[in-house]
């Protein structure tokens, strides 16, 4: 068969009926639609372009005899019928000079009435299957003169009901328009999903629909025949694939066999597969839910491999499913678009192959159209971008939602391909992003998609906005449905789905981890709300289950439910150790067994995991049969997991809680500090380059920087990149979620107002590894490249968690010894700078004067807090290494504040929290003591100074502001920006107001008064403790803490010698930054 003749798409045929007339003339007997024959198994029946043209004339006569009345009336299509008849109705209504409005029959009567009213609709096509919905809508609209009318199938396609020759008779042509068609007038309406309220009516002008037709979406791979039988005809995807593509190209569309007047064939995975196979499709577009189902059948996958392309759209496809299919040989590709703006992607693209000829593994990315110059990618500060499209002279948008611009902000979030420009992957929507109570952001699409792909479920929705941890609402599939009020059935279902949830957790960052207790199961009589394309409507689902979600959080917070967890065999150490191991194992996202003698926080635990483990302990104690054991639940310390982070030690401590007679003598904290120092300075190597050998000014300077995505690390990286005398910069960061290291660095720069273009420097090599592991977790080639070339090491990565005990930092302490060994083994001197903390001096006696830039000999000064004690150990390791000839320097970091240029001060720190809380309380506290905060830009500049100098650096520098100011200066700046309504009050009075708000706080209280989450810190501040630690040592200097000497700092850094005192303008800049980022709304 000859190839179809394509129509001109230059505007000379501006309407759909005119394009169809072209096909009737030039492609008369070529098929538009193909479907399996009812009468002859294995054969296909075609509906030709002539058939469709004649059908459109008959429908036009039926809808508007003699072209009477005015053009432009809207006709709603509220029917559930076959694809062929449905699209004939759309074209026929257009030929009649009317405007078709396809509507989903799943809309509510109120939604239908709303849509009818907003477009001034005067006619509705309906039939028996939608009679109830039509009746309710008709009753509501009766006074407005709405009529109901629909032609029968035999009137539209005689040959489909009475034989192939029944359509041979000539059809009276419908009268043509008497006036020139205005291409800016509506020719079609399509509605949105209604996820945020009633569906919105979106109109297409003749011009815009022609632009859709003419826009080159389709590449070359679709072939002459493709399947579109699984798509709803009233949806934009159905309009594009069942109507527009054929009008543009003459391609054949395989659909379900018409059943009218019986209901149409139900689109499900098996029926779509069978018709696609029988129709010999070269390509197909399917909904992700169908592809998920097909992936479980080897027979269907074997068929999918034969397709030129399998495209999906309308929702996310689980990455594991797509990877599995592509590995088998399926040519998979994503499609992206929206009713409001069309598709900026190449839908039927030429599918690239990998180097071995197999399908491209980047199937989840779409390629932006080369001619789509109207696209802008708006950075969100976390490595994702929102797509914004702008109207151009030759491409209209149906909706404008950017104030003052003819543009549409999609709210869709994307990630760029790390190495292939022009490829983008959708990761969620702005309104889907879950912002936890701690400010962390979760894009739930991948976890939801993976869990929903399980045969145990039909859908799921994550939740957790403004909470400390996320949860997930799961809808079981029909064969696995349960009554969630049945506790045993609920526990059993959670156990079934748990493996899938754990696998999904492995794809996500630690803060997005879903715990078993946070799995909520839907009620059978309250299914998840869905849009027409089958996707779950998040906002409506969360509204339906709002009370159950809040009740779940209340239960977790109160720890009154042991969630069906079996009790230990006995409550002594022997019984508790295996039980605790089992519980801990279920709280981490890996299969590697928990080692009872190793630190939990080095095996995947975090603060949230510790909270859940303690909750389980308390819940299980309360459920015990023994009254003695139940009473023990009241004696479980809040920090029991932090203080005893090894299973063996935790079991012994818990056994003592249950039976105090089993108590043993606790070890002196200072002794633990001494023991770690002795362990890690033992057998220190002598520097190979020789003791006292200065750094050479010859050759290249090559840096290794750890922790480059943190607050301090990102500023160090920016200043290193701006220095041309540095030859190469390696950054080493731990893996976090799905983001590549460069994307995380980019997000960190964007969030802090640093120049992102610096990250495009070819000198930068961003590595993913783990400094606490052998060879830094790098492959052999990477490791050798680093250690054989590096001349300077800046070790800035460290866990900042003031709840952890010292032993939980041992892996990080060992990483310092590992870096010392690397520096000592180098053939030429290597400079090693390790970030320490002024917090090690939290018990310094201020009567002795300022804290010196020297090693502090008494471990009691730092003991009692794990973080400070770990830094104390590190300083002693570095001192011992320096004695062996290693160029080691401890950078004792003080309170870093926002740069003078941007004021960017991270909102999770104590000072931003104090300021936001003060707005809610209506007053700021008056503090005393020196304000020696150091701006981050000054920190970055100082590190560059230390990288460039060849002279021997001091062993230790106190990085605090060498010219401190007073709180009065800060207070005036804050009040100047916040307004006079936020006055100054004594600190104790401020604390009293805070304590009042701490009584039974609501979720809104925790949001507006974030100091409630770190009450202990501010209580310590009131007792004149040092900000940045949790100690209670008093300081005569006042709540702002100690004074520090800075002679070594000033001697070693020209930048620090030039730094000016902090001013009111600096304080105002902080508030401006917090306002711009929505943290403070005053």
Distance between the termini: 71 Å
Major sheet strand order: 2-1-10-9-11-12-13
Under CATH, the homologous superfamily of the domain at 20-286 reads: ANL, N-terminal domain
The tally of helices reads 37
How big is the Rg?
A: 34 Å
Report the count of strand segments.
34
Structural class by SSE content: alpha/beta
**Mean model confidence by pLDDT:** 84
CATH topology call of the domain at 20-286: Rossmann fold
Domain Polyketide synthase-like phosphopantetheine-binding: 576-658
Keywords: Phosphopantetheine, Phosphoprotein
Protein name: Acetyl-CoA synthetase-like protein
InterPro entries: ACP-like_sf (IPR036736), Adenylate-forming_Reductase (IPR051414), AMP-binding_CS (IPR020845), AMP-dep_synth/lig_dom (IPR000873), ANL_N_sf (IPR042099), FAR_NAD-bd (IPR013120), NAD(P)-bd_dom_sf (IPR036291), PKS_PP-bd (IPR020806)
Describe the structure.
With 1082 residues, this protein is of the alpha/beta class. Among the domains are: 20-286, ANL, N-terminal domain (Rossmann fold, 3-Layer(aba) Sandwich), CATH 3.40.50.12780; 434-558, GMP Synthetase, Chain A, domain 3, CATH 3.30.300.30; 573-666, ACP-like (Non-ribosomal Peptide Synthetase Peptidyl Carrier Protein, Chain A, Orthogonal Bundle); 894-942 and 956-1082, Rossmann fold. Helices cover 36% and strands 14% of the residues. The chain has 37 helices and 34 strands. Strands 2-1-10-9-11-12-13 form a seven-stranded mixed sheet, sandwiched between helices. Strand 21 (457-463) and strand 22 form a beta hairpin. Helix 4 (109-119) crosses helix 5 (131-141) and helix 24 crosses helix 30 (936-948). The radius of gyration is 34 Å and the shape is elongated. 49% of the residues are buried. Residues 576-658 form the Polyketide synthase-like phosphopantetheine-binding domain. It comes from Phanerochaete sordida. Pfam families: AMP-binding, AMP-binding_C_3, NAD_binding_4.
